[in-house]
Amino acid sequence: MGLKETFQSTADQLFDVFSDFIKTVDYSQFVTGAYDPSTGKSGDYGSAVNAEIILTSYRADQIDGTVIQVDDKVALMRNPTFTPSTSDKFVQNSETWNVVHADDGGSDGILWTLQARR
Fold first, then answer.
1. Does the chain have fewer CB atoms within 10 Å around its N or its C terminus?
2. Whole-prediction pTM value?
3. What is the C-alpha separation between 28 and 43, in angstroms, rounded?
4. How far is residue 113's CA from residue 103's CA, in Å, rounded to a whole number?
5. Rounded to whole angstroms, how far apart are CA atoms 71 and 32?
6. Which parts of the chain fold into alpha helices (H)?
7. CB atoms within 10 A of CB 58
8. CATH no. for 3-117
């Protein structure tokens, strides 16, 4: 089994073990477009797609009040059909979370760690 397959298997096991904590969210990606002077925007959010995440808190020793704030959350996402980015957002239990950092940790897109902020 190659490295990618091993990582995929580990990600699958992680989500199996924590299946009670998996949340289905409405995930929207920001689509950059031409600047519209009437709205002052240069893009908007596309249609939301369902995505499965594990949403948890940062440990107290990780929170510095600047890069990671007290109410920030960690969202783990397995095998998304898109590439998460820092301009995205998701809705979970009627709360909108903005993605402020996205990293696949070198997993070739198998497992993403998202820093989410309300």
1. N
2. 0.83
3. 13
4. 5
5. 28
6. 3-17
7. 16
8. 2.40.10.270
